[in-house]
Amino acid sequence: MGYQLFEFENLEDCHRALIERFKEFFNNALKKYHQVSVAFSGGRSPISLLQKLSVLDLKWHECLVSLVDERIIDTSHKDSNTKLLHDYLLQNNALKASFTPLLPEKISGDTNELLDFANQHFKQPHLAILGMGTDGHTASLFPETSAFLNEEKENIVLTKPINAPYERLSMSINALENCEKLFLSISGVEKREVLEKALKENAPYSLPIARILHSKKVTTEVFYAKN
């Protein structure tokens, strides 16, 4: 439980190591379950990684892909994480995977109805691949929201970040901790400084990512690239 840190000189080597661990986890999970479930983060940072994963020779037809978080916008919007996965991951060999969205294709109704939709369709992932912002947020659990402090019973929570656009749906701390494994992919000096801050003993009360790194329920493998 807690974390393991793996450091690399550049992003290419970092992604190569993460992909090897992904393949290992994927294949081992399929030996235990009839289907492996993986949740992916959005944003622009993971695009290169998603493209590399899409061409892997894996049993993608036995994989259920879902999202760690999603912006409350139409899934055809350029900022939609659903669109991101369809454009960069659910291609090539990974086109055979099944996909479970957090939102219906067209947004209608109030946010509580959308939250209900997400929780009704939620399937607990075996693995989630996370990113981290320079403010210490992960998924869409931001420092200025209370969602990362509360022990939410729901798997998906609604967040309203102050310093980022759009209301969002996000896996809760509880749902993230119920994964068998978490991967965190980060790069650069600035994010290394945030990581060091998160590893301090009192950090879980100030940084969402620290709640994950200090977890007693799940181990996070941190893949860090210096450049």
Protein model, in words:
The protein is of the alpha/beta class and 227 residues long. Helices cover 31% and strands 22% of the residues. It has helices at 11-32, 47-54, 81-88, 111-121, 173-177, 189-198, 208-213; strands at residues 2-8, 36-40, 63-67, 69-71, 98-100, 127-130, 156-159, 168-171, 181-187, 219-225. The strands form two sheets. The protein has a seven-stranded parallel β-sheet with strand order 1-10-9-6-2-3-5, with helices on both faces. Strands 4-8-7 form a three-stranded antiparallel β-sheet. Strand 2 (36-40), helix 2 (47-54) and strand 3 form a beta-alpha-beta unit. It is globular. The model has no long low-confidence stretch (mean pLDDT 93).
Model regions low in confidence, pLDDT < 50 over at least 5 residues: none
Q: Whole-number radius of gyration?
A: 16 Å
Number of strands: 10
Shape: globular
Strand order of the largest sheet: 1-10-9-6-2-3-5
| SS strand fraction | 15-25%
Major sheet details: 7 strands, parallel
End-to-end gap: 28 Å
Structural category: alpha/beta
Mean pLDDT, nearest integer? 93
Order of secondary-structure elements: EHEHEEHEHEEEHEHHE
Helix content: 25-40%
How would you summarize what this structure contains?
The protein has helices at residues 11-32, 47-54, 81-88, 111-121, 173-177, 189-198, 208-213; strands spanning 2-8, 36-40, 63-67, 69-71, 98-100, 127-130, 156-159, 168-171, 181-187, 219-225. Helix content is 31%, strand content 22%.
Name some characteristics of this structure:
single chain; 227 residues; alpha/beta; 7-stranded parallel sheet; 3-stranded antiparallel sheet; 7 helices; 10 strands; 31% helix; 22% strand; globular
